[in-house]
């Protein structure tokens, strides 16, 4: 179980960061000259993240096979892995996920300048196929479809927020030629939309999965980890509000902004770790 949680955490991180970075690079770095300069630093990182994403996607499949069969040896048996991949709902979604992960890595490795929509589209497919492989698949019929769509919107918002924060960290580390305050203000406008999406879709997920506004018992595993996640997201929100207010009033040094953006990003990584654990816990008490 701990191995699966660790793999889920790493995989969620890289998929979310790649999508969010690809999405916000043209939005935050408007000038082509700025984008070209930043590509020299970001492209190798994105390629590395995509490689880690493919490796952890395969590991996730193998560990899920072992979990489904109750036998760790089955993770190394090709016939059992293929049976999970072709005969389960998870496997069918994961087949598309693995294909998108492989092609995305190939696109990022090709030295030719490919159209921007190609890696962005592949990253979107990679992210979208994460939505139906967790708790969102617990419901069937129309409610299940709606819950998967809600989870997809939740993931899109989280990915956008985390990827944009990573971009800001890079811009602050290499500030030459960049209007830092202007870039941060542009992100803060998008950030308000992303935060609203995360909160609303998160509450919908909890209500749909538990039947209540908050799971009980409050000290239970699922409720406790969810509380930790909610606390971390709240910290990120407060930091974002603080940064926006300080930027509007121009009362904060850029060095302080670097620290608060980094802390906000680290809180996001911790929240993803909580989500990785939540996906392995039952949202309702087992009788």
UniProtKB/TrEMBL annotation:
UniProt KW Cell membrane keyword: yes
Subcellular location: Cell inner membrane; Cell membrane
Copper resistance protein D domain: residues covered: 183-278
Transmembrane annotation, as ranges: 6-24, 45-63, 94-112, 124-146, 152-171, 192-210, 222-242, 262-281
Cellular component, GO annotation: plasma membrane
Membrane topology: Multi-pass membrane protein
GO terms (BP aspect): copper ion transport; response to copper ion
Keywords: Cell inner membrane, Cell membrane, Copper, Membrane, Transmembrane, Transmembrane helix
Keyword Iron attached: no
InterPro entries: CopC/D, CopD, Cu-R_CopD_dom
Purpose of the protein: Involved in copper resistance.
Matching NCBIfam families: copper_CopD (NF033808)
Family recorded in the similarity comment: Belongs to the CopD family.
Protein name from the UniProt record: Copper resistance protein D
Source organism: Pseudomonas eucalypticola
């Amino acid at each position: 179980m701990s191995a699966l949680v660790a793999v889920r955490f790493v995989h969620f991180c890289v998929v979310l960061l790649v999508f969010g970075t690809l999405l916000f690079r043209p939005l935050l770095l408007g000038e082509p000259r700025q984008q070209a300069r930043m590509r020299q630093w970001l492209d190798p990182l994105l390629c590395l993240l995509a490689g880690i994403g493919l490796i952890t996607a395969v590991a996730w499949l193998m560990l899920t096979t072992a979990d489904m069969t109750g036998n760790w040896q089955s993770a190394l048996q090709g016939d059992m892995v293929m049976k999970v991949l072709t005969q389960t709902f998870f496997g069918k979604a994961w087949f598309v996920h693995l294909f998108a992960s492989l092609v995305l890595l190939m696109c990022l490795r090709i030295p030719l300048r490919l159209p921007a929509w190609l890696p962005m589209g592949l990253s979107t497919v990679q992210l979208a196929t994460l939505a139906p492989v967790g708790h969102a698949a617990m419901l069937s019929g129309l409610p299940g479809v709606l819950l998967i769509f809600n989870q997809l919107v939740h993931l899109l918002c989280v990915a956008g927020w985390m990827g944009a924060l990573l971009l800001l960290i890079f811009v602050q580390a290499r500030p030459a030629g960049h209007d830092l305050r202007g870039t941060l203000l542009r992100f803060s406008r998008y950030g308000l939309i992303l935060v609203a999406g995360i909160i609303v879709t998160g509450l919908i997920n909890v209500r749909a999965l538990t039947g209540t506004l908050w799971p009980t018992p409050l000290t239970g595993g699922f409720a406790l980890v969810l509380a930790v996640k909610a606390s971390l997201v709240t910290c990120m929100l407060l930091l974002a509000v603080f940064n926006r207010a300080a930027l509007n009033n121009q009362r904060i040094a850029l060095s302080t902004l670097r620290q608060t953006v980094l802390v906000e990003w680290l809180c996001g990584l911790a929240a993803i770790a909580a989500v990785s654990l939540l996906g392995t816990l039952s949202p309702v008490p087992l009788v």
